[in-house]
Predict the 3D structure of the following.
Amino acid sequence: MEATWYTDATKYWDTVPATINGMLGGLGQLARPDAVSSLRFLSEFVNPPAGSTSASIVSPPTAAAVADSSTRTLSTQRQKLPLPGSEPSRVLDCGAGIGRVTKQVLIKAFDHVDLVENSAAFVKQAREEYLKAEIESGKVVEVRCSGLQKVVFEGTTWEGRFDVIWCQWVLGHLTEGKVQGSCSLPFGVVTNLLFFLLLGGCKQRTSSHFLIGARGVLSKAG
Amino acid sequence: MIFVKENNAKDGIVIDEEDSSMTRSDQVWKEMFEKSGLRLLKEEVQKGFPSGLFAVKMYALEPV
């Protein structure tokens, strides 16, 4: 893969307007079906915070869906997040753009949202306009400007912090060779490594546990 | 947990040089999750998008 892979992506996104339409490649009309489906999908695993408008958006399960529940996956027996007694729920929106998914989906399902986004222009728009009210109210905690391939959890306020890490339309930009700067690895391995790094941001797991896992991937990659 | 919502290629990997992205097939995604030590709890195809776009899929994952 070319050395300019990530800089080319940055250049591409620099040409994209910091708007909902821009975030969706000119298909702003997809925002609503996207958000409704995501909220419904999340609702099986996450209890929304009190007062959330999520329930009014996600229509109640139909009789057919209830009847079908016996054939569902393990998820139906799972205890929903946040776990009882835990601190307020928190999610990280990866490749967040101006914060469309944060505002239309994640803020309705979690107490707090953090964002990581590569484009300085999108981060600026999120901070100063699109998410301004949510930042002021404390619902949105941090909007960090970083490529996902360079995101650091260990030793930062994000280590072990999140109930959920949400990656939407961003992992396609991740490929070989540039995670943490120096390694040149076969295709696929680095995105695997990315998942190990992301798990360093998840609650209930220590990042050192996953760094051991990540080192295992690296050593296998030679 | 990790949630992934990404485009799906019909087969293999489709590379787009314009925006530096690679679109993986469902099978490639699942191989990646497995190699990463992630268990797939639920998957769902996004409905209501126009035809002609890549299929979009949601995956709910947790560490094994």
Notes: Chain B has a mean pLDDT of 91. The two ends of chain B are 11 Å apart (CA to CA).
